[in-house]
């Protein structure tokens, strides 16, 4: 059986992290179908690419990841949204839970298994 949630859009304003995340996730069976460096382009990319997962940085140059998650939902994007940050989830209080995102993974803990476990828990 093919793995579920295998196409990913990476949204982060740091090219180094996008490159790292793409290599890591592709090495663990995900298909990275696009990258965006800000919230506005992320919404457009998610609408056109229809990825299974949007890996979304919390701190972007134009909007917060929380606002982008809301815009994705308002635009009818049904992708799973996984917020990422170099900060700990506890730094964001209830923002993660109320954002419409599926969940959160700290950048330092990002891995294929961690992402799959988070996505499996959404059912």
General description of the model:
It is a single chain. The protein has a single domain, classed as Response regulator (Rossmann fold). Helix content is 38%, strand content 21%. It has five helices and five strands. Strand 3, helix 3 and strand 4 form a beta-alpha-beta unit. The longest helix has 13 residues. The radius of gyration is 13 Å and the shape is globular.
Reconstruct the topology from this structure.
Layout: E1 7-11, H1 15-27, E2 31-36, H2 39-49, E3 53-57, H3 65-74, E4 80-85, H4 95-98, E5 103-106, H5 112-120
Parallel strand pairs: 1-2, 1-3, 3-4, 4-5
Strand content of the residues, in percent?
A: 15-25%
The CATH superfamily bears the name Response regulator
Helicity, as a percent range: 25-40%
Major β-sheet profile: 5 strands, parallel
Assign the structural class, choosing from mainly alpha, mainly beta, alpha/beta, alpha+beta, or little secondary structure: alpha/beta
Distance between the termini: 17 Å
- Order of strands, widest sheet: 2-1-3-4-5
What is the tally of beta strands? 5
| Mean of all residue-level pLDDT scores | 93
What's the alpha carbon Rg, rounded to whole Å? 13 Å
The gross shape turns out to be globular
User: Any guess at the CATH architecture?
Assistant: 3-Layer(aba) Sandwich
């Amino acid at each position: 059986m093919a793995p579920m949630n295998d196409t990913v859009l990476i949204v982060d304003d740091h090219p180094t992290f996008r490159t790292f995340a793409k290599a890591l996730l592709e090495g663990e069976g995900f298909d990275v179908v696009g990258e965006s460096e800000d919230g506005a382009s992320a919404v457009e990319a998610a609408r056109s690419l229809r990825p299974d997962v949007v890996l979304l940085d919390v701190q972007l140059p134009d909007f917060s990841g929380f606002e982008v998650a809301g815009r994705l939902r308002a635009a009818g994007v049904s992708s799973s949204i996984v917020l990422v940050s170099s900060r700990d989830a506890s730094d964001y209080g209830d923002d993660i839970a109320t954002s419409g995102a599926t969940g959160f993974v700290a950048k330092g803990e990002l891995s294929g298994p961690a992402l799959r476990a988070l996505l499996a828990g959404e059912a």
